[in-house]
Design a protein that fits this description.
By secondary structure, this protein is α/β, with parallel strands linked by helices. Helix content is 62%, strand content 10%. The chain is built from 28 helices and 14 strands. The chain has an eight-stranded mixed beta sheet, with helices on both faces. Strands 1-2-3-4 form a four-stranded antiparallel beta sheet. Strands 12-14 form a two-stranded parallel sheet. Strand 1 and strand 2 form a beta hairpin.
């Protein structure tokens, strides 16, 4: 220990240098802790995906999951140093490396346990589910049972390893390096899981990979402990348990907590906006998270060097927070004023590698500067407290715990309160303000502190006061510089630059009117009108419109299953959109209840206002009930059975959508059908390549072996091209009597149904039947070898996300047409009716 370090720690006697602080041992420790970070990120991805399938994918459910995960890290980091002080038997007898090894082995054991126990825990949740606050409480209890035990152990690993280092300036620098190594491993784990393990092998294989890493780390740590065991035993047998009183320590903890709050709050806001701009695939979320973590790692490394070399870590910490405020303003400017105007069209990138490169560069350009300053803040905060603690584990736990606690508050506050109430622009202004507050919390007490002046001298109060005043003025200027993102970004998403250029040209004759803009808990909504064409956009994608092609599809999604069922008394609509699909059931005299499950609270009221005529004012119909929940979770937590269940979710490549196309989801749907009930599923052909469409069809037919496919096709320059499909499934073979169907349509009480069909070009029962495209038995040769999308792999989102620019819809549709033959046994009726339908279904026609 240097004389300077001894002077920093009054009364502390010099000890022999810890073997962990020698270069070879430190390199091994850094490698081990990097592996720990890698495994932790794999677990996080896997557990969040598994639990979302059980408790739902709403913002509330995701918030509960993330809060529980971070709460475990917080509890582990704070509790272990207090429950196991340096002189406690585990440390006195074994030293930190064996304790760390046991923690890693425990994490691996719990990881394996979670993989097999979660399905049973999920069944208990479904059996005991309730409504309102009790349901929210039950979700929290479920997450706590599954996530808290392993995450508590994860949170304990950092302070345990830090006990192998001294709480000197050099030791704090090495602690910062540990933190940075852990983040570097997390970056690798994020990319490895998102781009490789889950894409090719599924949740189980990813879990096994993480468990294997834990076991290797545990055994290696035990071996390392054997080399330094005698030294550590002697060291911890005499280690003091005192925690010094630190002048201004509270300010440091408050500041690092605010830093964690702004970090997670910004991650919520920026992930929301960048996923709209990049396209919300699983790969986009992996790229954004990886860049965020990479910035933290780079910053942590830089901060560790600075913490070791600077004489004024508090001053450096405060300045770092001021620079962070400027970096947040930079990111806000880049998202609102720079990225939307880059002259690029990502849809041209048929090779997904090019698209990943583009999104990676844009993410680095946008969010890397701020993440570097967040990363640097952590070791600088530890450096500000380093000279006052005899327990390096307690030092690391205090800073890590405060930072994690702030992160929990930031994630929850900005997800549930700030974005829905203030919007993303005001939220970013709030982030800048909080970063400035964090800087002032650190810097203000320094105005009279000896040695914290610019050159080691006391800082003159007057000069320091003027400096703080200038910082406040700059902060206000930064806050004022933040502008709202253009509505075009929220509407057009990844094609914003191309569409904004097109809008400028078209609006000269047909101006676009912005009718509605909203940012809710789960989604950002835009509704526009251009010469009567009304479109609703959700998270940068066209959700639906009143264009004839869209209206036909939405009408088919409701009318087809209702007509096939013949007595649709109770119906469930998954996803609201414009409300047209739900509104078709208003026209049916038999319908008694119309239940709607919609994820986003903003969509039904907005669409109810601006698409009221098209959706038959379904929201104000006495038979309509709206539940703000994802459709899967609604079905899992309700016992109702339906005559018709029609699903119209978002695009295939959007993260999380594949849970509404999995075999398990279709089985849930089947269980909620009454005898003779019909399930309808929308399938867009333009969202993926051949493998994607095959996967959906094969998965649907695995549950509904008598399923049929119906097409909403468009004529493009005289060529019949595919657009959307509607899949129909029943528990028994489907039978459609076209004559009986026509008789129903001719009844006076079916005038509303007939009018709805004629509005989109269906003038007779045969016109409806002619949309038939194929059935499971006829398509089996084409579907041979197709991947089944299950809850254990959710392979569909990886297939669709990889080929979102495939533009293969026309070719896929023509292939399906090649398998279409007149389905004997499906259609019934008079010979004349069947003959006319046969002609309509013939390739020549």
């Amino acid at each position: 220990m240097t004389k300077l370090e001894q002077a920093e720690r009054p009364g502390k006697q010099s000890v022999d240098r810890s073997p962990a602080e020698s270069f070879p041992a430190l390199a091994v420790i850094l490698l081990l802790f990097a592996g720990s970070g890698c495994a932790a990120l794999i677990y996080e991805v896997v557990w969040l995906q598994q639990l979302q399938l059980i408790i739902g994918s709403t913002a509330v459910s995701v918030g509960v999951l993330l809060a529980t995960y971070m709460a475990g890290l917080f509890l582990g980091s704070v509790a272990l140093p207090r429950l196991l002080p340096p002189a406690a038997p585990p440390f006195r007898l074994y030293g930190p490396f064996r304790v760390y090894g046991m923690l890693e082995l425990g994490i691996g054991l719990l990881g394996i346990l979670n993989l097999f126990v979660l399905p049973y825990v999920g069944s208990l949740y479904v059996a005991g589910v309730a409504g309102g606050f009790l349901n929210l409480l039950l979700r929290g209890v479920l997450c706590a049972l599954c996530i808290l035990p392993p995450t508590i152990l994860m949170g304990a690993t950092f302070p345990v390893l830090c006990r192998s280092l001294e709480s000197t300036r050099a030791g704090v620098s090495r602690m910062g390096s540990l933190y940075g190594a852990n983040i570097a491993g997390a970056v690798f784990g994020c990319l490895w899981a998102g781009f490789y393990l889950l894409r090719l092998y599924g949740l189980a294989a990813a879990t096994y990979a993480a468990v294997a890493i834990n076991i290797l780390i545990g055994l290696a740590s035990m071996a390392l402990a054997g080399q330094s065991g005698r030294y550590e035993a002697e060291r911890y047998a005499t280690r003091s348990e005192e925690w010094g009183t630190v002048r201004g320590a509270t300010y440091i903890y408050v500041a690092i907590a605010l830093s964690g709050l702004t970090a997670l709050g910004a991650q919520v806001v920026w992930t929301r906006l960048l996923s709209v701009l990049f396209g919300a695939t699983v790969y986009t979320f992996s790229i954004i998270l990886a860049v965020f973590l990479a910035g933290l790692g780079i910053g942590s490394g830089a901060g560790s060097i600075l913490a070791r070399s600077t004489e004024r870590p508090k001053l450096a910490f405060g300045i770092c927070q001021l620079l962070l405020a400027a970096s947040i303003a930079w990111t806000a400017w880049a998202i609102a004023r720079s990225l939307p105007y880059w002259p690029i069209d990502p849809a041209l990138a048929e090779n997904p590698v090019y698209l990943f490169q583009l999104n990676l560069f844009r993410a680095l350009w946008t969010i890397l500067p701020a993440t570097i300053f967040w990363g640097a803040s952590f070791p600088l905060a530890m450096g500000s407290l380093a000279s006052h603690s005899d327990d390096s584990g307690q030092l690391a736990a205090g800073v890590y715990g405060a930072n994690t606690l702030g992160a929990i508050v930031g994630a929850l506050f900005f997800s549930f309160i700030s974005i829905p109430a203030l919007g993303t622009m005001r939220s970013q202004q709030l982030l800048i303000g909080l970063a400035c507050v964090s800087a002032l919390v650190v810097l203000t007490p320094l105005r009279s502190s000896s040695g914290d002046g610019l050159y080691g001298e006391p800082a003159p109060s007057q000069q320091f006061g003027w400096g703080l005043a200038a910082a406040v003025v700059v902060a206000l200027a930064l806050i004022a510089s933040v502008s709202n993102v253009p509505w075009q970004l929220l509407a057009y998403g990844r094609r914003v630059a191309l569409m904004m250029y097109s809008d400028r040209e078209e609006s000269k004759e047909h101006p676009i009117q912005l009718l509605y803009r909203g940012e809710g808990l789960n989604s950002s909504i835009v509704i526009t009108d251009q010469s009567g064409l009304r479109i609703i956009y959700v998270n940068g994608n066209v959700e639906a419109s009143n264009a004839i092609d869209d209206m036909r599809l939405q009408t088919m999604d409701g009318q087809l299953p209702a007509l096939v069922n013949s007595n649709p008394q109770d119906v469930l609509v998954v996803g609201f959109g414009t409300g047209v699909s739900a509104g078709t059931f208003v026209t049916h005299p038999e319908t008694k209840t119309i239940t709607i499950a919609e994820l986003e609270h903003l969509i039904p009221p907005a669409s109810g206002k601006f698409f009221q005529r098209e959706n038959h004012d379904v929201l104000n119909d006495r038979r309509t009930k709206v539940f703000y929940d994802d459709g899967r979770h609604y079905l899992q937590t309700h016992d109702d059975r339906f005559d018709v269940i029609t699903s119209d979710p978002v695009h295939l490549w959007i993260k999380g959508t594949s849970a509404l196309y999995s075999r398990e989801y279709f089985e849930i749907v089947r269980r909620h059908l009454k005898p003779g009930g019909v399930a309808a599923q929308w399938l867009p052909l333009y969202d993926g390549n051949v493998d994607t469409i095959k996967s959906v069809l094969a998965t649907f037919f695995a549950v509904f072996p008598n399923g049929t496919v119906w097409s909403n096709h468009v004529m493009d320059h005289g060529v019949d091209r595919g657009f959307d499909l509607v899949l129909l499934g029943q528990t028994s073979p489907t039978k459609i009597n076209v004559d009986a169907l026509q008789q129903r349509l001719d009844r006076p009480d079916y005038a509303g149904v007939t009018s709805s069909l004629r509005a989109v070009g269906f003038n007779s029962a045969n016109d409806v039947a002619a949309t038939y495209l194929g059935r499971a038995s006829d398509l089996q040769p084409w579907l041979a070898g197709a991947q089944i999308n299950t809850d254990r792999n959710l392979r569909l989102q990886y297939l669709a996300g990889l080929e979102m620019n495939a533009n293969a819809s026309a070719a896929i549709y023509q292939t399906l047409l090649g398998y279409r033959v007149f389905p004997q046994g499906l259609f019934e009726g008079s010979p004349d009716s069947l003959q006319r339908l046969s002609v309509m279904l013939s390739p020549v026609h």
